[in-house]
Amino acid sequence: MDNDEQALSPEEMLRLIEQQETATVSRLAPNPVPHYLAWGVAWFVGFGAFFLRDGLSGTPYLAIPLGVTLALLFGLMALAMVVSAMTMWQLGSPVRGASQQRGTMYGFSWAFGFLAMWMIGVRFGPSLPIPEQGLLWSSLSMMVVAVLYMAGGAVWLVRPMFVLGAGVAVLNAVGTAAGPGWHALLMSVGAGGGSIIAGFVLRRRMRR
């Protein structure tokens, strides 16, 4: 068999190139499921505790101190941020240059965003009634998350990430206007469930 007979057709060469590109992306891109699952569980459980504490009508379904609900929510969110940092490290470790710099700056954005949120909460929280204090902390934290999700989706052109951030922003605004119980319910079911779904949607797209 001569070289002409062994040569690949243009269609076969194109298919081979696409397969190699897919394999390269799979090796370099981190698995997004742990990131979105960690945040989804944090929001579902953390805001679920707020929902049980506040109730839709202001009557608690379960007597949980505010300090316990805040510690649970922010403790789970801190764990989620660790998972996110590991995901960003996996993204940047095999790549150098502009992509790594964007990832580093994006990671610092989370730290500075939550630092600003913390200072606002400490300054204005004590002047509010107890139920409103919880709403202030939770709504501020989700505002930071929503903005950074949309920014991350725009930077890396990840549409599900941007859509999730926009959805969280809308739910956060609606819930804040409706009151503590409704806000907790929307964040638990909407943001938490939406984050889990977004992770699996991204993973499915990466496998195509």
Brief rundown of the structure:
The protein has helices at 3-6, 10-28, 33-54, 66-92, 98-124, 130-156, 159-178, 180-207. With 208 residues, it is mostly helical. The protein is elongated.
Count of DSSP strands: 0
Q: Give the fraction of residues assigned to helices.
A: over 70%
End-to-end gap: 35 Å
**Overall shape:** elongated
Q: The biggest beta sheet, please? A: none
> Overall mean pLDDT score?
82
Number of helices: 8
Listing every helix as H and every strand as E from the N terminus to the C terminus, the arrangement reads HHHHHHHH
The radius of gyration computed from the alpha-carbon positions, rounded to a whole number of angstroms, is 21 Å
In quaternary terms, these chains amount to single chain
Question: What count of structural domains?
Answer: 1
| Parts with pLDDT < 50 across at least 5 consecutive residues | 23-28
